Automatic annotation (TrEMBL), chain A:
A single MF term (Gene Ontology): transcription coregulator activity
Assembly mode: Component of the Mediator complex.
Organism this protein belongs to: Oidiodendron maius (strain Zn)
The protein's name in its UniProt record: Mediator of RNA polymerase II transcription subunit 10
UniProt KW Transcription keyword: yes
Automatic annotation (TrEMBL), chain B:
Keyword Nucleus tagged: yes
Coiled coil: none
Recorded family membership: Belongs to the Mediator complex subunit 14 family.
Ranges of biased composition (kind: Basic and acidic residues): 34-45
Function: Component of the Mediator complex, a coactivator involved in the regulated transcription of nearly all RNA polymerase II-dependent genes. Mediator functions as a bridge to convey information from gene-specific regulatory proteins to the basal RNA polymerase II transcription machinery. Mediator is recruited to promoters by direct interactions with regulatory proteins and serves as a scaffold for the assembly of a functional preinitiation complex with RNA polymerase II and the general transcription factors.
Protein name from the UniProt record: Mediator of RNA polymerase II transcription subunit 14
């Protein structure tokens, strides 16, 4: 993993977790309110204050000019918002890229073959343009050998 | 590219330089890598600047060294950042929102009601067991819900943040995927291109030459593998065979047409010829078609050979492609429908062709000669040609024709074999179709221009005929006063001309220009131009309103002509006086279009002549106006009666009219004056000249004269009661000789040139026209008037035989002659009276000259007194002359005498008599009667002139026939006298009547005493003497007129002698003998004449007496036996 921005990433993650924790604490305190009498009230109060602070921290971190947080594709936000796993999104893309890569590789090989065949045929059928064909083959990554083979 | 998937996120911060710098600060441990990264990143950035789909990426070949590029994105992979959200923004927003929500929630909670238990609890700090109060629960719930939802949000945010660690890699993956997708599509398009090439290859192919066969054929002449069909050549055609065949064909055709097809041949195909193996059907004006047959079977069809058009212009020979087309169509139709179908097809084709030919020609016209006035529109089959484009503006009515095909069907829809469809023109004139227009045009030699001209000619004829019709109904043209002529042409619109005679001399022609439809009014003149403009610019429907322009033009022209002609004969056209239009309307006829106003110089200002011009004829009006300061009103109007309804304004006419109008004006003024006097009058026609007829006025003299046509003396009418007043003519006087008023025309004849004596009026410089009127008064007693001269006056003539006075009356135009006439009549009355008087006294008076103004009487010679006078004075006593002047109506008559006339003494008295009841008659009586006495007195006075030192004599006139003369005798040295004062001796001389004869009665009135004095004694012989015509009456004497002179002479002698101091020695008898040579008139004794002979003569200074009023005491005798003196003011 790239270390750059890792600090921010870590920090902001921690802060987020704090916020979540605070919220959780509030929920717990709310549900447990009154049972314990006066202390719960103070605890809730402090919890809320804590939440406030945490939020402030998040905000400060996020809005600090130095913070280098990455950009997120909007599709991902929708993904998460709908309660789906963002990793699926990642995986999907990886999958797509992989498949496309393989396909391309195959296609390239096939086309290269086709090119060679076509070039050979053309060289034979239209000897007057053989030079040109050769240049095209060369430019597209083939070799003139093919033509020469056919000539013989 | 297999190496496209990269695990390393080295390039993750490629798009933010700042971030890298920060990173550098924060994590210096990675500086080495960062430097490296930065370098690569710049390259990448530069590449990113290029458009994402830049072409050079496509031709990029595989990078040779993948490893070097492993940490960087290869340039051909585009980095996608569009639409990416910043995580920091997300978190910022989330925290801010949460914070806000929290604040709101806390506030909300704080506002929620706190349960009482809780309050208590707060106070006591004692933990309650359960707070299950609803307030508490809802509070908790609210807080919980908030916390929960916020929690969920934050968890999501944490997940995203967690994930974002990998976002760099994922981003790259995405880029990679997109790159791969693009590559894929490029391959697909390559396949597509190839297939395109494949598809286009067949056309690029060239068949291979069949070299093998060619070689075979060329070398051996035949190729065994080629098939041999084995055709047999037909025998060559011989001309006789051809002829035979053709003749055979002719026969067959003839048979077929006459037998089999006879009923099928359409009517239009009846004209055919069979020749050269073909049948030629000829449809006149359309086409000619050659057909033939190919089979003997009559059921088989005819075949097309050739087609020729029989109209012009048309192609002489069909172009090949057309021929093919027509041939195939005709053959097809011949197969299905036979000859009728063939005819129908060709006929319709020809019609369409003709229409298009028309269209072509029209289009050519619209581009050429008729440019901008034609609009050609091709309808389905027909063609519409609009002509006179924009003639009436964009909104005006349009005119067009539609050339189409009439189906030729009968109206009941049944098929009529004889009628075929034909060309047909529908004409829309001004937007309306004219159904019954019979438009003929040549369908054989087609000419669009001829067609248009025909239609336009009809249109023009329609317009002009409509105008013609409208004008024809006008009285001016209906009565053939003016000529109206229309010439129409069927096919040449410019030859359709409407000729209108506008005045007696001018004729205008109205025509329409065919191409533009604009009117042309000729010949060119200002008025015509104006009318033309009106026609072309204002009128949108000349057929309906066009006549009004012509009418206007006529009126303008006529007014112009009247003005020009009138100017030469003295009419001056003036602007319309400031009259109210309503007033004029009442006067002038309703159809008046224009009014021209004229005035004659020399007329009175209030008279105008107006010419009301209308199509009903021109009428001439005399209009009298009254100029009251605010406005001018018409006081009266007269129409001048003229026979012709539109008289030609020739010079002759106008000058006659001038005279006539003046006559009418005067006539009118006369009648008005008569009417105002309530005088009765009768009009009777009389002719004064050939062109003017104006009735004479007959009026009653008795109503005109103050004297009621009765002579004062006789109480009888002196003239017939009828006066005829006739207009005679006009005189114009130069401005220098304008009579100031009519009365001054009536100066006595003796004054020279009455017309020329008046000073010119300043305000009337243009001269004045004088109407001359003749009045005739018939006097019933011509015998007495025979002494009148033929021309009594300059203006009065007398015809003795008929006893008619003719007076020439002059007055300004518009002024009545009636006052003048009255005055004249009064004077004539006087004249007649005088003449009668003179006639009565013709023994004593002689008329020297007589005129309306004065009479000169001569007297004193007709009796014996002439001889007597000649004896006494010793010279010829001239005739005495009395001038009776009765110049004016108002003033009294005067009588005047020349110097030395004895009547000067009583001139004033005579004048009084003259103006009194007796009038001239009295004067005429008195003149001879008093002459001897007065002459004697005159003589006495003259005699005493030389004895002025002895005394003088004074004559007093007490009445016209009563004189008193007194001697005042100065005492002389010889005479012994007690008194120094002059002694007065007064005699009274009075005319008295005895037995109807006049007698002078002379007596002494200063009686000194009973016994008398010395003068009485001296007078005694006189008083006692008597002689011819006189008789002494002892103390006084009487004398007849012929003796009075002698008597007075004797008396005077006595007194002169007395004054001179000696007694006359002669006796009465001697004196009587010597002084009375004439016969003695027997006289009756009236009084005793007393005479005393010796009296001292006293010289009395001579005092010339003038007949002036201050010397004549007005001790008039109020009554005398014969006369009455009434003083006249």
């Amino acid at each position: 993993m790239a270390p750059i921005g890792q600090v921010d990433q870590q920090a902001i993650e921690g802060q987020l977790k704090d916020v979540i924790q605070d919220l959780y604490q509030i929920m717990v305190q709310v549900s447990a309110y009154d049972l314990a009498g006066r202390p719960t009230r103070d605890v809730l109060e402090s919890n809320i204050k804590q939440l406030h602070r945490s939020l402030q921290k998040v905000h400060t971190t996020a809005s600090s000019p130095g913070a280098s947080l990455p950009h997120i594709p909007p599709e991902l936000i929708q993904y998460v918002d709908n309660g789906r796993n963002p990793d699926i999104y990642t995986r999907e893309f990886v999958e797509l890229a992989r498949r496309g890569n393989q396909l391309m590789k195959g296609k390239m090989a096939a086309y290269a073959d086709f090119r060679d065949v076509l070039a050979g045929e053309m060289g034979r059928a239209l000897p007057e343009i053989r030079e040109d064909v050769g240049r095209v083959v060369e430019a597209t990554g083939g070799s003139r050998e093919i033509l020469k083979e056919e000539e013989d | 590219m297999p190496g496209a998937i990269m695990e390393n996120g080295a390039g993750s911060y490629t798009n933010h330089d700042r971030d890298q710098r920060q990173n550098g600060v924060n994590g210096s441990g990675y500086s080495m890598e960062k430097v490296q990264d930065r370098g690569s990143e710049r390259v990448e950035q530069q590449q990113k600047m290029a458009p994402p789909n830049s072409v050079h990426r496509a031709v990029f070949t595989n990078p040779p060294d993948l490893q070097e590029q492993i940490n960087k994105l290869p340039p051909e992979i585009a980095h996608i950042t569009q639409g990416y959200m910043s995580l920091s923004t997300l978190l910022k927003r989330l925290s801010a929102r949460t914070h806000e929500d929290l604040k709101a929630k806390v506030l909300q909670l704080s506002q929620m009601p706190i349960p009482s238990s809780a309050l208590n609890m707060n106070g006591s700090q004692i933990t309650s067991v359960d707070d299950n109060s609803p307030e508490n629960l809802s509070k908790k719930l609210a807080l919980l819900n908030f916390a929960q939802s916020t929690h969920a949000d934050w968890v999501k945010a944490l997940v995203i943040t967690n994930w974002s660690r990998r976002s760099e890699d994922v981003s790259k993956t995405i880029d990679l995927k997109i790159y791969l997708d693009r590559q894929k599509s490029m391959y697909e398009s390559a396949i597509h291109e190839m297939s395109e090439v494949k598809r286009s290859l067949p056309y690029a192919r060239m068949p291979n030459p069949d070299l093998k066969t060619a070689l075979q054929v060329l070398s051996t002449g035949k190729a065994p593998w080629m098939p041999e069909l084995g055709y047999i050549l037909p025998p060559p055609l011989m001309s006789c065979d051809v002829l035979n065949t053709l003749e055979n064909l002719n026969t067959l055709l003839s048979i077929r047409l006459n037998l089999h097809e006879y009923d099928n041949i359409p009517l239009q195909f009846k004209d055919y010829t069979i020749k050269s193996g073909r049948v030629t059907f000829k449809v006149a004006g359309e086409f000619e078609i050659d057909l033939t047959i190919a089979d003997e079977d009559p059921e088989k069809q005819f075949w097309f050979i050739d087609l020729r058009f029989l109209f012009s212009p048309a192609v002489l020979e069909l172009p090949t492609h057309l021929r093919y087309y027509i041939e195939s169509r005709v053959n097809a139709v011949l197969l299905t429908d036979g000859l009728p179908g063939c005819y129908k097809l060709l006929h319709e084709m020809v019609l369409t062709h003709k229409i298009s030919e028309f269209r072509r020609q029209a289009s050519e016209l619209a581009r050429g000669k008729w440019v901008e006035s034609l609009k050609i529109e091709a309808l389905n089959r027909a063609v519409s040609i609009q002509y006179w484009l924009d003639r009436y503006g964009a909104k005006g009515p349009k005119s067009w024709i539609v050339l189409g095909v009439h189906s030729g069907r009968r109206k009941d829809g049944r098929f009529d074999p004889k009628s075929a469809s034909h060309l047909f023109v529908r004409w829309f004139r001004d937007g309306k179709e004219i159904k019954d227009a019979d438009i003929r045009f040549d369908t054989v030699s087609l000419s669009a221009e001829a067609l248009l001209k025909t239609v336009i000619a009809k249109h023009v004829a329609y317009i002009l005929k409509a105008i013609h019709e409208k004008l024809q109904s006008k009285p001016l043209f209906a009565g053939n006063e003016m000529a109206l002529e229309i010439t129409t042409s069927i096919d040449e619109p410019s030859e359709t001309v409407l000729k209108v005679q506008v005045t007696s001399k001018q004729t205008i022609s109205v025509s329409v220009e065919p191409i533009t439809g604009r009117f042309i009014v000729g010949p060119g003149s200002l008025h015509n131009m104006r009318a033309e403009y009106g026609f072309n610019s204002k009128s949108t429907d000349p057929a309906n309103d066009g006549h009004s322009y012509i009418e206007q033009l006529r009126c303008d022209t006529a007014a112009d002509e009247i003005t020009t002609h009138g100017l030469s004969v003295g009419w001056s056209r003036i602007r319309r006086p400031d009259l109210k239009a309503d007033d004029l309307k009442q006067v002038l006829p309703k159809d008046t279009l224009q009014v021209a106003w004229f005035r004659r110089p020399g007329w009175r200002k209030e008279w105008f002549i107006a010419v009301s011009l209308s199509m009903g004829g021109d009428r001439w009006w005399l209009i009298e106006t009254l100029n009251q300061p605010p406005e001018l009103t018409i006081t009266s109007h007269l129409e001048i009666p003229i026979r012709a309804s539109a008289p030609a304004p020739t010079y002759n006419f106008l000058s006659t009219l001038g005279i006539f109008a003046a006559a009418v004006v005067s006539h009118y003024a006369n009648l008005k004056a008569l009417h105002s006097q309530h005088a009765f009058y009768v009009l009777k026609s009389s002719k004064t000249s050939s062109s003017i007829s104006l009735p004479s006025i007959f009026l009653k003299l008795s109503e005109l004269l103050p004297s009621r046509n009765r002579l004062k003396r006789t109480r009888k009418p002196w003239a017939k009661d009828i006066v005829k007043v006739t207009f005679q003519g006009l005189e114009s006087t130069p401005p220098a000789a304008v009579p100031a008023s009519p009365s001054q025309l009536e100066l006595p004849a003796s004054t020279p040139a009455p017309d020329a004596i008046e000073a010119p009026k300043k305000e009337d410089q243009e001269g004045t026209l004088i109407t001359v009127t003749e009045a005739r008064i018939v006097v019933p007693v011509p015998a007495t008037l025979s002494i009148l001269k033929e021309r009594v006056d300059q203006d009065i003539a007398f015809h003795a035989e008929s006893g008619t006075f003719a007076c020439r009356l002059r007055s300004r135009v518009g002024e009545s002659v009636i006052p003048v006439l009255t005055e004249r009549a009064i004077r004539i009355e006087r004249l007649v009276e005088f003449v009668e008087v003179l006639h009565k006294h013709s023994t004593t008076l002689r008329c020297d000259s007589i005129s309306l103004g004065k009479i000169i009487l001569l007297y004193g010679t007709s009796t014996g007194s002439l001889v007597e006078a000649g004896d006494s004075i010793g010279a010829v006593i001239p005739q005495y002359k009395a001038v009776v002047d009765f110049g004016a109506v108002s003033s009294t008559m005067t009588i005047s005498f020349e110097k030395g006339n004895p009547h000067l003494l009583i001139a004033d008295r005579l004048a009084r008599v003259l103006n009194g009841n007796e009038g001239l008659n009295g004067v005429a009586q008195l003149l001879p009667l008093t002459l001897p006495a007065l002459r004697a007195l005159d003589t006495i006075e003259e005699a005493w002139t030389s004895l002025s030192d002895k005394g003088d004599v004074l004559v007093f006139v007490r009445a016209v026939d009563w004189y008193r003369f007194s001697y005042s005798l100065l005492p002389t040295s010889i005479q012994v006298s007690s008194t120094t004062s002059p002694r007065k001796v007064v005699f009274d001389l009075k005319l008295q009547q005895r037995k109807g004869e006049p007698w002078w009665f002379v007596r002494r009135v200063d009686h000194p005493g009973k016994e008398g004095d010395d003068i009485d004694a001296l007078l005694k012989p006189v008083w006692n003497s008597s002689g011819e015509g006189y008789r002494g009456m002892r103390v006084n004497a009487v004398a007849q007129p012929n003796g009075i002179e002698e008597l007075l002479g004797k008396l005077d002698d006595v007194l002169r002698a007395f004054a001179s101091g000696y007694k006359p020695m002669h006796t009465i008898g001697q004196g009587q003998a010597s002084h009375t040579p004439r016969q003695v008139v027997p006289v009756a004794t009236m009084a005793q004449a007393q005479a005393k002979s010796n009296r001292p003569v006293m010289s009395i200074p001579k005092q010339r007496q003038q007949p002036t009023p201050n010397q004549t005491q007005s001790q008039g005798m109020s009554h005398s036996s014969q006369m009455e003196v009434v003083e006249i003011d």
